[in-house]
Amino acid sequence: MSVYKKKYFFWIGYSKDNAGNWVWEDKSSDPFTNWDTNEPSTASISKCAYADMSEDNLPWSAGNCNIGMPYVCEYVPCMAGNKIC
């Protein structure tokens, strides 16, 4: 991680599966990525993606999933058409 404190980082629900493919936690197939330069890391322990709020474009990096950081979740309220309420 960079020199910034981890308060600037948050997990985004994107991780590397056992086959080495990056997948969204909700199993969606959105192809969007925002990897930072030289990312994702190829280190075997770097299996979860996080965003860096210290940069304007919120670049992603790969890190150890066991590091305690905040995370974001997608939430669709019932009034927005969510059928599972």
UniProtKB/TrEMBL annotation:
All copies of domain C-type lectin, residue ranges: 10-74
Organism domain of life: Eukaryota
Gene3D superfamilies linked to this entry: Mannose-Binding Protein A, subunit A (3.10.100.10)
UniProt-recorded name of the protein: C-type lectin domain-containing protein
Native species: Pristionchus fissidentatus
